[in-house]
Amino acid sequence: MMTDLFITPKLQTLLPRLRAFMxxxxxxxxxxxxxxxxxxxEKNELAALRQKVKSEGLWAPHLPEEEGGMGLNLxxxxxxSEILGTSPLGHYAFNCQAPDIGNMELLHKYASPxxxxxxxxxxxxxxxxxxxxxxxxxxxxxxxxxxxxRAERVGNQYIINGHKWFTSSADGAAFAIVMAITNPKAxxxxxxxxxxxxxxxxxxxxVRRISIMGEEGSGYMSHSEVRYExxxxxxxHLIGNEGEGFKLAQERLGPGRIHHCMRWIGICxxxxxxxxxxxxxxxxxxxxxxxxxxxxxxxxxxxxxxxxAARLMVLHTAAGIDRKGTHALRVEISTIKFFVANVLMQxxxxxxxxxxxxxxxxxxxxxxxxxxxxxxxxYDGPDEVHQYVVARETLKNYGIKx
Length: 402
Ligand SMILES: Cc1cc2nc3c(=O)[nH]c(=O)nc-3n(C[C@H](O)[C@H](O)[C@H](O)COP(=O)(O)OP(=O)(O)OC[C@H]3O[C@@H](n4cnc5c(N)ncnc54)[C@H](O)[C@@H]3O)c2cc1C
Prior knowledge:
Blueprint: H1 9-26, H2 30-35, H3 38-43, H4 45-55, H5 74-85, H6 90-93, H7 100-110, H8 113-124, E1 130-133, E2 150-154, E3 157-168, E4 175-181, E5 192-198, E6 204-209, E7 223-234, E8 238-239, H9 245-281, E9 283-285, E10 288-289, H10 294-324, H11 330-355, H12 357-360, H13 366-372, H14 383-396
Parallel strand pairs: 1-4
Antiparallel strand pairs: 2-3, 3-7, 4-5, 5-8, 6-7, 9-10
Bound molecules: flavin-adenine dinucleotide (FAD).
């Protein structure tokens, strides 16, 4: 198999175990997921599932060994992420879901010992959830240096005022990492800082869960509009140093894009499998399955080629990051971000088409993914921004500055 190229000794037994666990324990819960509010599942079936993951020793696979994880590098975790991504419940079950995974990494590297004890430990243990609050409705998120949220230092506190949206998973979360301007006179990239705000703080207002394609979701599976109205937090809640917000955001996003891309490849594989099964089984007339039609064969072949190419590109980028760090691989990271998001759109669209009317019902996972993953071409930088980065860096070699 082509991914054997990236198999390491740690993965040899881990990946088959994970595949078996997904089949036996996670996929059977998907019917409930499609018919019940997520917040209800979180409290009941998913809490029990998380206990099983822990008892199997598979919990939080992204963490270093000393933190109770598996100490996987990015190439290894990427392949884990693909398997977990084959179900919308996978990453949450293993406590390595965005945005918590990025927040864990940030707190692990930059938080004070007090913040680590109070917020990182329970987050790692899966006792609480968190969110990341950066984008504002009034400003183009594609140019993140433009924002209005302010954190003013008054004595030993930051007083935070601002309006954010798409603060994913804020519903039911214990804290947010908020991006706010602390140094308005500094250079644009040195103005903002990251500050941890417990959501029980007076002045935190949960405005609404934003309805997306007809569904507002709940709990972990939702995106909120929120306001910070004179929210006061101790200065010790600063993460890293003042003015380092964008630097930390870049660090958070590099590996984050590998995680997302590999999760999308997991979705692609599942949708591809569903497409092939349905094409083979659904008969247009006696002994003529949909798979007999050449156009469907072409969709299958195109999808296979695109998924394989996407996986190779992402794992190759992950290997580069493991060796040289995020900055050295920034062009490759931009390349996979828009490329894989578009492969995902095409594979999902073909799988839905092959399923006919069934494809747009909520009887299968396809419509959930079609609605929820359209955002893949927008979050963590829209396609166009990443395409610009790739073109800009390429054209430098041809004497063109854009
Ligand atoms: C599902 C989902 C989850 C999210 N979760 C979070 C979260 O947890 N926390 C958080 O803070 N934010 C989150 N976001 C917000 C996300 O980061 C922003 O949507 C993203 O940065 C784009 O900003 P915007 O929506 O303001 O679009 P804009 O910046 O207004 O851009 C609109 C469009 O303009 C075009 N465009 C932009 N720049 C260029 C360019 N340079 N060249 C050509 N065209 C361009 C693109 O087509 C783009 O889609 C989430 C978004 C989604 C969809």
